[in-house]
Amino acid sequence: MKRRSFRFRLALISMGLSGLVLLVFGLVAWWALSQSQVRSLDNELTTFGYRFASRSGPNVSGERQEETLVSMVGGEVATHRFFAILNRREVPLFRSSQWPETLDPVEFPSGDSPLDPQPEVVFPSPKPGEERPERDPRPVYEPRFYTVDAGGHRYRVAVYRNDDVILVAGADLDQFSQTLIQLRNSFLIALPAALAMIALGAWWLGRKALRPIRVLGEEMANVSARDLDQRLEAGRADIEFARIIATYNDMLERLERSFHQANRFSADASHELKTPLAIMRGTLERGLEKCRNSPEAQEVFSQLLEQTGRQGAILESLLLLSRADAGKLEISAERIDLSMLLETWLEDAGLLAESRDITIRSEIEPGIELDGDPVLLQQVAHNLFSNAVRYNNENGVIEVRLSRNESGIEWAIANTGDPISEEDRERIFERYERTQTGSVHSSNGAGLGLSLVKEIVVAHGGRVTAGENSGGMAEFQVWFPS
Questions:
Q1: Which of these, 155, 260, 287, 299, is most buried using a 10 Å CB contact count?
Q2: Domain chopping of the chain, boundaries
Q3: Domain 334-480, CATH 3.30.565.10 — does that match?
């Protein structure tokens, strides 16, 4: 299953949560602005309505009130305002020029309760030379407000009245809607850019916050059995990461202690078993000498000697592997002629191949020299040749090639046994592992030979791989730097 990046999920979550917050904020702001505009409009209509209701009687002049409205709100705004005057029996007396044809002023009932307290209305000062008698304001009734849809428009309508006349005043809300729509469009345009910036910020923050985890992961990836003594420095790390680093260091300490104990046991056991095996081998050899006249006894002693030699080889391999695990596999490097040594090792391999009628073919480039340990490299050759014989077919073929090119020294050993499957090509270098497609002779191995080959080759700065050559033969390729 493909795993997603935590930083990607963090950016996605941050963008989603921020988008939700911004959306809720936009909706609340939209509602608040709408209510604020309606309240502002109501205040404007109320100022005009109270002034009208406090001073107007049955003989009020509609044209004069229209002029008053224009003087109060301005000519441009007045184009979106309208009013109608009705008498006390709700019979229309006047409609302003902006009154919508889709509205009927009679449809809006007026309040029937006197306003308490009465509004304070300041009458305009008389013009120079004009005398205006003093009079008390008329009692005003409680106003009523309506929001209606008619003819594809939304209107806000307020009704004011006194004992003689009724004023129905209103405004087109589409004027305010245009402002809100522009604000909404601006918000929707800015929202993607804001979310993108939030996502980038979350990505950067996640990268910075997870840097200690990334460093810890890199350090963990570089730790091997030879590097268990390494520890991470907490330094100025935050408390949370310092706790992780401390736990990791404690784990390394436990692993190092357990590994050294296991490695010491393996080395000590291999070393201690050498002596009884040597004594056993000497005893069997003497027994073999004393029973020359008994073929059956000689066969038993020979088989025991063979098994004793095999056990000694296993112990030697375990000892070498334990040294390699501990980083103490010593390489006595000297300049050796690898081509000449390989010719010599092929002669020994020929003895193993004769018992199964296996043919050995070789293409060895002469004069190839290498800085290496001849004893350990002989162990590599012995294990690879033994493997080629053990996993080969009867009357099969072994091909050996040694050459040098610009990349280094290449040494290949192929055999006509069963091909090595893709899943086995890495696994066979692990200890105590065997291929699932080996021949019947494959059960003779202890599963340590190829693991030891890999450790020795790596100690020489090289690498070993398993695969298949162009002829379909199972092949091991060893590479050394020039």
A1: 155
A2: 6-118+138-181, 239-325, 334-480
A3: yes
What is the C-alpha to C-alpha distance for residues 449 and 317, in angstroms, rounded to an integer?
8
Strand order in the sheet with 144-150: 92-95, 81-87, 165-172, 153-161, 144-150
pLDDT tens per residue, range 381-439: 888 988 888 888 888 899 999 999 888 999 999 999 888 888 888 888 887 665 554 44
Buried b (16+ CB within 10 A) or exposed e, 17-54: ebbeebeeeeeeeeeeeeeebbeebbebbbebbbbbbb
Which of 173, 213, 208, 178 lies closest to 44 in space, CA to CA?
Answer: 173
Q: Using one digit for the tens of pLDDT, what is the confidence trace for 185-216?
A: 888 888 888 888 888 888 887 777 777 777 77
Q: Which residues contact 24 (CB under 8 A, 6 or more apart)?
A: none
User: For residue 150, what are the β-bridge partners?
Assistant: 153
**Strands of the sheet with 359-364, listed across from one edge:** 359-364, 397-405, 408-415, 474-480, 463-468
123 secondary structure, DSSP code: P
State residue 442's pLDDT score. 44
Tokens of 136: 């008390």
Which tokens hold the place of 87? 């008498």
Segment 318-345, tens digit of pLDDT: 666 666 665 656 677 789 898 998 888 8
Supply the pLDDT for residue 441: 39
Side chain identity at residue 144, one-letter code: R
CA-wise closest residue to 234 among 255, 221, 256, 219: 219
From the list 97, 106, 50, the residue with the least C-alpha distance to 75 is: 97
pLDDT exceeds 70 at position 74: yes
- Indicate whether this model's pTM tops 0.85: no
CATH class for the domain made up of 239-325? mainly alpha
